[in-house]
Design goal:
The protein is flat. The chain contains 24 helices and 24 strands. With about 850 residues, it is an alpha+beta fold.
């Protein structure tokens, strides 16, 4: 009997499908990798099982970081299994090729990425043998399109399966997104790395369609902070006595109007109604009001505030970062554990904040569970609020919560019917957030009484106005779930009452001095918001609409994008703040200077999303889109390849520390820090003494404070983040030595020996570390070669032959090349869901060594315990 193979995106969905089909198709037998009934075989992927790669004839083994082999634009893409999922992939291929399986049903998530996952698995199965590659699999394909996971919705979906022809436009858009990300990521990264390494060394410079605009957002904010001009202003606050007591008010200009055309960062942009820009004027107001009588008017009106919507992943990550300091990666990991391990939350990688319209019965059951179950610890307090929601009938059909048009591939994150047991403290915090939001969203709005009081004091022919605001919680509504109660008499939120037109006396007046503040640095919470709302930064209305619900990255990939930027040292965490490094400024400066600024802008994603949407509607062909991407890729590479000026234009720093050679002024340009001379320094002012040093020793960018330290003390470190010629990371101290101190041939030989030993030692340390982490991905023969090469270097290091050490070190570089490829492939896979956001390949040993003729740096490997 013929059967249909149903392929879901993840095991939990496969189980839901089995439960839904059992009443209509009979019992399913459980096997290791699948379930089987009379008519169906049900299995699943675990997300992406394969990734695209260039065909072997386009895969450059040596010289991939050279302009000679760019751009890489293959006519088609081959597939590569993802190492950690090979077992599941092989099991699916075996099921696909079963003779009794005549139909394949795509039950992956209802969206572009779910379509891609299924199509690539089927393509891999077809390519696995010469026969199926030539003739095809000979299987029919249908699509299960689900917006809800209730048993009834799943059964309805099987009654209305979509044809393969209907899904081809979506499949084309999915493949185009994946391939375009690969082309931009691989070519952009290799081109910028080649450009930055052309003067020697190896400076890995990763570029990506999502990664780079995200970094640009952080860099642009930091530029605004650095350029901020602090301006003094003053505020005047007065205390006034009424019959019922005293209250405070702040002076303001009632006729003030904000200048909407004021340039950002200008003095006009800082103007506010309550700011006074002269100390004398502020004091004059205080002196005029001191002890005077005033009259009071006030307006009081009710106000309501609805509960925030249910969580999607980005909102959950943002709030968990604000409340607990959890990184986006940590929150995703906790939510994933609550979903997969404890089964107490629904699927977390969602961008929807609504539920399907047929989910009301499930929600009521979930609310009953929370009300009746003996939840652990602080969660127990929520049962009373869930019970009230059940008893008072708060759960009812409302478009604010139940709306199919606002449900994408997945619905909002809510608790499941499974009560939690044995949660860690961090897991319990996150579960508590989701449960509180789930209960609160069905509660009535909170009700407030909002009062605005204006006190007018006539003095010296002028009328000075002071504003006082009060907000009193009258009915807590949903805020009760968060422990808020209605304000009682005497609460600080109350204002002392006044009669209409009552006369009040000024009892005290105070002038306070302030300074304007620059914009706040991004935290992970605010950066996630910026990525999610990146479409607002776009001027073109058509592209803005295409990105309206997309943003930069997806809920599932934003954490990986941020972590990738941190790993590649483009950003660093300082407390909760995220700060761009010198490497980040260098990349953004480079892209602007080369005239490929579109790589730094969200418009690129907006343009892609618009065109992919047109493709899904059948209005744009796959070939036309990919031709545009190929042309753009060629242009980016060509711009970098043909750039022939000495430096890149940019906003560069002037160092505080004088030139160590002549005492002149040292300035930064794109590649170096250079002495430009001074009146008391060089022979001719402005020409400099010839002192110059690289900004990127051994592939690591100097931060400004590090350069200042090195110039003033001639020593720096130990510092992490350096890379050898083969791309291996190492830690080193830096020492500045003048050429005059190295003129003796013997000294030069000693230095060369020290450098050879340090490089060999650093490489051994790095390869050993990488072997520990990634060695299980190599076969035994490859591991043995690397171990033998390590021993050879260690033996050479005991001697005093520079040539022997360099030969053995180069041999280790060659032997460990595959290990490097595995390491970088793993990095790419970690970020790859966002589309070739990393380098995409391991650094080779073909970059030429650094050569600094003016200042040499001695690297000393720091041993780690």
């Amino acid at each position: 009997m013929s059967k249909a193979l149903v392929i879901a995106e993840k095991p939990s969905v496969a189980q839901d499908i089995v439960r839904a089909l059992t009443p209509v198709d009979g019992k399913f037998e459980k096997h290791d990798e699948y379930f089987e009934s009379e008519h169906y075989v049900v299995s699943s992927a675990v997300g992406h099982l394969v990734e695209i790669k260039a065909p072997d004839e386009f895969d450059v083994k040596r010289g991939k970081w050279s302009f000679n082999n760019l751009p890489v634009i293959p006519p088609h893409f081959d597939l590569n299994p993802i190492d950690k999922s090979k077992g599941r992939l092989n099991a699916l291929v075996k099921l696909i090729k079963r003779k009794d399986v005549e139909t394949l049903i795509n039950a992956c998530d209802a969206g572009r990425e779910g379509e891609l996952i299924f199509r690539l698995i089927v393509q891999y199965a077809a390519d696995s043998t010469a026969t199926t590659r030539a003739k095809g699999l000979g299987k029919g394909v249908q699509r299960l399109w689900l917006q809800s996971m209730t048993p009834a919705a799943i059964r309805d979906g099987f009654e209305q399966l979509r044809s393969d022809e209907q899904m081809l436009p979506l499949a084309s858009a999915a493949r185009c997104r994946s391939e375009a990300d690969w082309l931009v990521g691989i070519n952009g990264t290799r081109a910028m790395t080649a450009f930055n390494s052309r003067d020697g060394g190896f400076f890995l410079t990763t570029v990506g369609r999502v990664q780079t605009p995200t970094l640009s957002i952080v860099v642009e904010r930091e530029e605004k902070i650095r350029k901020h001009v602090f301006r003094d202003y003053w505020e005047v606050r007065g205390t006034f006595g009424a019959q019922a007591g005293s209250y405070e008010g702040k002076w303001f200009a009632p006729n003030f109007k904000k200048d909407k055309n004021a340039a950002e960062g200008s003095a006009e942009a800082e103007f506010k109604a309550d700011r006074i820009w002269s100390a004398a004027e502020a004091q004059a107001i205080a002196d005029a009001v001191q002890g005077k009588q005033g009259t009071v008017t006030e307006e009081s009106k009710p106000s309501t505030q609805a509960s925030p919507l249910l969580y999607d992943l980005t909102t959950l990550q943002r709030e968990a970062n604000s409340r607990f300091g959890f990184s986006a990666k940590t929150t995703l990991g906790l939510a994933q554990a609550l979903y997969e391990k404890h089964k107490v939350l629904t699927y977390p990688r969602t961008d929807s904040r609504a539920l399907p319209e047929d989910y009301i019965p499930v929600v009521k059951q979930t609310m009953e569970m929370i009300a009746d179950d003996d939840l652990p610890g602080p969660l127990r307090e929520l049962s009373q609020h869930a019970r009230k929601a059940v008893n008072d009938g708060y759960v009812k059909p409302t478009k604010r919560v139940f709306d199919n048009t606002k449900v994408s591939d997945h619905f909002a994150i809510i608790p499941t019917l499974q009560a939690p047991r044995s949660l860690t403290e961090a897991e319990a915090k996150l579960y508590d957030m989701v449960v509180k939001r789930f209960i609160a969203v069905f509660y009535p709005s909170a009700e407030f009484q909002v009062t605005t009081r204006i006190t007018k004091v006539p003095a010296a022919g002028k009328e000075h106005c002071f504003q006082t605001n009060g907000k009193v919680l009258v009915k807590p509504g949903w805020l009760a779930v968060y422990g808020k109660e209605a304000a009682e008499e005497g609460d600080d939120a109350h204002l002392v009452p006044v009669e209409a037109g009552e006369s009040v006396a000024n009892e005290d007046i105070a002038v306070s001095a302030h300074k304007t503040k620059p914009p706040a640095r991004y935290t992970e919470a605010t950066l996630l918001s910026a990525m999610e709302g990146a479409g607002k930064l776009i001027d073109d209305e058509e592209l803005k609409a295409a990105m309206q619900e997309k943003g930069l990255g997806t809920p599932a990939t934003r954490a990986a994008i941020i972590e990738g930027l941190l790993t590649e040292k483009y950003m660093l965490r300082e407390g909760r703040e995220i700060i761009p490094t010198a490497k980040a400024f260098q990349l953004v400066t480079l892209l602007r200077g080369l005239g490929v600024e579109e790589l730094t802008k969200p418009e690129l994603t907006g343009n892609w999303e618009f065109k992919l949407s047109e493709m899904e509607k059948g209005r744009l062909s796959r070939e036309a889109f990919m031709d545009e991407i190929a042309a753009m890729t060629q242009r980016v590479v060509q711009k970098a390849k043909e750039y022939d000026r000495d430096t890149i234009p940019g906003d560069y720093a002037t160092l505080k520390t004088p030139c160590p050679n002549c005492g002149g002024v040292v300035k930064e340009n794109y590649r170096r820090y250079t002495c430009v001379g001074s009146d008391g320094g060089a022979d001719k002012p402005g020409e400099g003494c010839g002192f110059s040093m690289t900004k990127i020793p051994a592939g690591r960018s100097f931060e400004l404070d590090e350069v200042e330290t090195l110039l003033s003390t001639h020593k720096l470190g130990p510092l992490e983040g350096f890379r050898s010629k083969a791309g291996w990371p190492f830690t080193a101290e830096l020492k500045m030595v003048k050429d005059a101190e190295l003129n003796a041939a013997e000294d030069k030989k000693k230095l060369e020996l020290v450098q050879a030993k340090n490089q060999g030692d650093a490489l051994v340390h790095s390869v050993r570390k990488s072997l520990t982490e990634y060695g299980d991905k190599l076969d035994a023969g490859e591991k043995d070669k690397i171990e033998a090469a390590i021993k050879d270097v260690e033996e050479a290091l005991k001697g005093e032959s520079k040539d022997d050490i360099e030969a053995k070190t180069n041999a280790l570089m060659t032997a460990s090349q595959k290990l490097g490829e595995k390491m970088y492939a793993d990095m790419q896979a970690a970020q790859g869901a966002a589309g070739a956001e990393g380098a995409g390949a391991a650094p080779g040993a073909d970059a030429k060594p650094a050569d600094d003729n003016v200042v040499d740096a001695e690297f000393k490997e720091v041993k780690k315990d």
